[in-house]
Amino acid sequence: MLFEEERKRIIVQFLEKHSRGSVQELSQETGVSESTIRRDLKELEEAKLLKRTHGGAVSLQSVNFEAPYSDKEDRFLEEKQRIARKAVEMIQEGDAILLDAGTTTLQIARELKNFSKIMVITNSIMALNELKDCRNIEVSITGGILRPDTMAFVGPMTEHSLDMVRVDKAFLATNGLDLQEGISTPNMLEAATKRKMIAIAKQIILLADHSKIEQVSFCKVADITEIDHLIIDSGAPDSFIQELIEKGIDVTIV
């Protein structure tokens, strides 16, 4: 009979190898009852080591998995706030900026209220809600297909809206940040929208907390060298930062 911690380790390793597993499969793998597996999955989800699904669980490392917005909003919140404050320092009065949908870019929206002469275009319902009462800021929303998991507008209508404008700075969010695989996200429509954002901006500023490093999602957005500036928290490994600098990318650590 396996000890509890060993059993949970086997469950996590199984999911990392196979991306997903049913309660029945995990019961067979560990030799315990399905009711014990369900209890283990609940505890492992609470520890943010997996995501439960109907009848089983998926690994958080699955390239096609995306946690709901509400699950991500408070994760690494302090780091996201530091990243956002540094990003706002790059904005000047008179700028036209683009805010991608994301929990870190939402923190930028919350820091913009002291500006009086900027234009903001966004595909984020959450950013729009934050800025809707700021009469001193001109805010445009793209429209499009709303993705509940990210509270983002995506798709052809979104891309058409973006094609009509040009911005000084685009602040992008990402699910994955890898030196070889670049910037990535789980959803095809979202990836296409981010690529359009890159195309219409003079300067591309990527915002990422250290948990995104060496993560690869299903859809590639861009090579890492296509961004101009990365703002990341101090949890990022020195070796990773050094390789970015060697590739010619400006990096700010907060």
Automatic annotation (TrEMBL):
Top-level taxon: Bacteria
The keyword DNA-binding appears for this protein: yes
UniProt keyword list: DNA-binding, Transcription, Transcription regulation
Family annotation (PROSITE patterns): HTH_DEOR_1, HTH_DEOR_2
Pfam hit, one: DeoRC
Domain called HTH deoR-type: residue spans: 4-59
Gene3D superfamilies: 3.40.50.1360, Winged helix-like DNA-binding domain superfamily/Winged helix DNA-binding domain
Coiled coil: none
Protein name: DeoR family transcriptional regulator
Source organism per UniProt: Paenibacillus segetis
